[in-house]
Design goal:
mainly alpha
Amino acid sequence: MESGMPLSGRQRALIRESWQRVRGSPEQHGLVLFTRLFDLDPDLLPLFQYNCKQFASPQECLSAPEFLDHIRKVMLVIDAAVSHLDNLSRLEEYLCNLGKKHQAVGVKVESFSTVGESLLYMLEKCLGTAFSPDVQEAWSKLYGAVVKAMQRGWDTLPEGD
């Protein structure tokens, strides 16, 4: 990610402070995020298949051990982004590869805006009144930078035959 990332020192501090309040219960907060994601876009449910099993409902998916593992991984990616706020470019290759993996399973770039809405919803629910407009703006910028890096994974894939 570019060194000119649009996060100020204050925004980085707000992200770190707010994440400190969330990171202690990653599975619980991740469930809030993905419950919201499926509420906003139920058509994403078929993307989550484990051992060729198609989930009949979001609730079935959200309670599957394999999906809970996915939630933990997503929360670890967020944690890594927060940990590398001062040098996000260190995550560039990892996020690009993560983008490739998401494209390979059928995720569309457009779906990441819904994921972003779900992330902000989760933060708002978990932080309560501490989720100020400044916190929202800081997280939106960070998420935008993460998605931009993941999109590079789409951009580096060869065109279809």
